[in-house]
Amino acid sequence: DMYKEKNPLTVCLIGVLDENKILLVKRKREPLAGYWGLIGGRQTFGKEIREVASQEVMEETGYTIKNPKINGMYSEMILNENNEIQHHFLFIVVKAKLDKSKERVEEVENTDVENFRWFDFPIREEDKKYIIPSDLIMISNFNSDKPVYKEFKMRETKDRVELVSVIE
To answer: What is the mean pLDDT of residues 34-63?
Structure first.
């Protein structure tokens, strides 16, 4: 009902790096279906961020990570064509390394990911149009030693998604 308080959804996003590659996933569900972005999943009550990060990477790709570290925190609102807020997320972004000592496991989960693949890191110009605009900014911050804090607004229309504002 109209009196029920709505809160941003807390989501852990994970950038898995392996030398000069980064692992991204293709979204199967709205919002931003069909776009590539960081691996992600909700932080549930009582779960530590590093735990969420390891679990989500395993569920969505079958890979194991090591040395997960918090790299940033971002608030993101997704607006529709009429500039109404449709989604609001609080992203806690984790940077991790691929654990090469572990074999990749075939996925068992039915996730909201259509596909995953390794992209060049830094992201090549020609790949940028397939990647969620705010995720591109988060990925560019993986070279920073200090955690980054920003707020995004994005607009999603029928045929594209665009960054409306970035607040530092």
So the answer is: 96
- Residue 162 has a pLDDT of 95
Question: Is 162 in contact with 80 (CB distance < 8 Å)?
Answer: no
Distance between CA atoms of residues 42 and 12, nearest Å? 6
Percent of the chain with pLDDT over 90: 83
Q: Residues with Cβ < 8 Å from 73, sequence gap 6 or more? A: 90, 91, 92, 93, 147, 148, 149
Tokens of 160: 């594209």
pLDDT at position 144 is 86
Q: What tokens does 5 get?
A: 């308080």
Q: How far is CA 46 from CA 39, 51, 139, 147, in A?
A: 20, 10, 27, 23
Sorting pLDDT into bands at 50, 70 and 90, what band is 1?
Answer: low
CA distances from 134 to 63, 129, 155 (A): 24, 12, 11
Distance CA 8, CA 37 (A): 19
